[in-house]
Amino acid sequence: MRKKRQRRRSADDRHDTNRATPFLEARGEILDVLRGKVVIGHALCNDFLALGFVPPGGLIRDTSSRLFKEMCGFHNRRLVSLKSLSLNLLNRRIQDGKGGHCSVEDAQATLDLYKLVEEQWEQIMASRSKDAPSETDSTPSLAHYMQDEYWPDPRSRQRSVPLL
């Protein structure tokens, strides 16, 4: 008699997706939280791409930036992992276990990396803001770009090629 082969379970199987917040609702809540806030993270472009959001550059503190690569001596590397930065600059091993990434551990390492250069980074940002256009210019504000006209509902998109 042949044993019935069990299907491997994935992380998605462990969560009740029927009770999950719909993407557009979650996205709206996330954007509300982020509005006007400084965001510290690693390779944030990936997260913002998933949200379909382009934040103002002055509010981003991304530890995947050139500053951290240079501190490690990785001048020629395009990307440096958070794991590598943490080991080289904080002398801390992260993402080593079988479980892979721990979001809390990653967030703590990212914040600790930022704290290494916080004063320098904020001085750079302050000098850039002095050179930035004043509030009286005609540049649209972030609130202007957060209006629905710039964020079409993905369900309303028309297919350009008819299905057969």
From TrEMBL:
One of its GO terms (cellular component) is nucleus. It comes from the Eukaryota. Transmembrane segments: none annotated. InterPro entries: REXO1/3/4-like, RNaseH-like_sf, RNaseH_sf. Residues 126-164 are annotated as: Disordered. Signal peptide: none annotated. Keywords: Hydrolase, Nuclease. One of its GO terms (molecular function) is nucleic acid binding. This is Exonuclease domain-containing protein.
